[in-house]
Amino acid sequence: MLAAEASPLVKVGGLGDVVGALPAALGALGVDTRIMLPFYGLVSPRKQKISKVFSFEVAEGGRKEKASLWRTVLPGSRTTVYLVKHPYFRGKEIYAGGRLAKGKKYTRGQDDIRRFAFFDKAAVAALEKLDFKPDILHFHDWHTALVPDYLKRSGIRIKTVFTIHNLANQGLMDGRFFKRENLAVLSGFPPQISQDFMARGVLNSDFITTVSPTYAREILTPEQGVGLEGVLAARRKDLRGILNGLDTDFFDPANDPFLKKKFSAPDLGSKIDNKLELQRRFGLPQDARVAVVSLVSRLVWQKGLELITDDFADLDCQFIFLGAGEKEYENRLKKLAKKYPDKVAARFGFDEGLAHKIYAGSDIFLMPSRFEPCGLGQMIAMRYGTVPVVRSTGGLADTVDRKTGFAFKEFRAKALYHALATAIDSFYHRPRLWKGLRAAGMRKDFSWTESAKIYLKLYQKLIRNGRFH
Ligand code: ADP
Ligand code: GLC
Prior knowledge:
Blueprint (H helix, E strand, L loop, with lengths): L13 H15 L6 E4 L12 E10 L2 E11 L6 E6 L13 E4 L2 E4 L1 H20 L6 E5 L6 H8 L4 E6 L10 H7 L9 H4 L2 H8 L2 E4 L2 H6 L10 H6 L4 E3 L27 H13 L9 E9 L17 E9 L1 H13 L4 E5 L3 H10 L2 E4 L9 H7 L3 E5 L2 H6 L6 E3 L4 H17 L1 H13 L5 H16 L5
Helix pairs in contact: 2-3, 9-11, 12-15
This protein binds adenosine-5'-diphosphate and alpha-D-glucopyranose.
């Protein structure tokens, strides 16, 4: 598996969770699954053993660049991780360069285009030399979408699976870079499609998956296809939605090292201790009776943060926000916290431990996403006995129903307000319903077991079928 993130080594969002967990689930089914990542500056040899495998060269803009391959183990598992070392990844940041929005499309700056194209090329070059010869290359999101291009160039024949975690992040190369890399023009599509990493991944891989069945249908429509609905339609027969799972050991309220007081479905008593501790930590009045409503999210357009308005201060609850991302959204939440210091508290930055404490200590979890390919936040919340209030879209529609949470359809502040008000009312006045919602959420199987079996069947089918796309 090739990707830009794998938790707990490198994580910005759900992509890291998935790439960090699926290999172990496949491992349990007998598949020798190994991960390849860029060797980012933040992956520290001081924290774990990392050893060199070999040095190699990568063609880059007419020169040969020196790179090296390193090997480690994903902490908390037995999964082998290969790391591609090159000065492009020396910095502490995972994603460099600004993010340019073009309508609904997001792309990174050309720095990231160059970095990740290099990673793809280097990964293929390393595979040519490596003694591990996989039957399948499974790669994730736009960062790795040029793998089939470089694979074709190398002459190695390996079946490929491309997973779309987020179609809105496409990776658009400029004309100069496109020319320099000498990539084939994709005929039958508008010229800019050839310069789009995501489109190339879709058109050149043997099979394409996305992270929930509903999202697999949505991306074929002009509303959610982000300009690639035509490209996806061309591969419709080889496209399938497979619902993400969770690493249920890492997200386990009964055994979570980030929690002082653990709890489980039959013994929810200590959930209250987590709530009081959370209120203390966030400087809110400590009160076990008040409903605590939380949000843990990347702060980006996708996540529907503008639906949370000043009007929400009328609701009888406390709000706790944890987010990292764009300043505009951070400022909105900051303002709310400043205006209503007894009701709203916010922290910014990425903090895995704090996220776990929030899932554990809240009563209600918000996910008002504009679109959501799968969403793990709502699943983690349910596992921690926290009832989700979500917009019914993508994977949220596939994972939250009336037995486990509250959903609203229209992307409007009023609709979210109404759903949240109903949830809060149920929390205070319908204790039996509330108990049932929590219990149903905690009972649900969010493990990777079933989905890993589906991936395995897909790999086997691709291997049996001698034909390459
Ligand atoms: P996305 O991948 O779009 O960000 P998901 O719901 O699939 O959304 O996954 C988000 C993952 O990232 C979850 O594990 C969530 O807890 C975590 N996360 C998001 N923001 C933060 C943050 N600021 N600090 C810690 N964890 C975060
Ligand atoms: C993306 C999506 C999210 C999904 C995650 C893991 O970041 O935004 O919905 O859960 O990838 O697949």
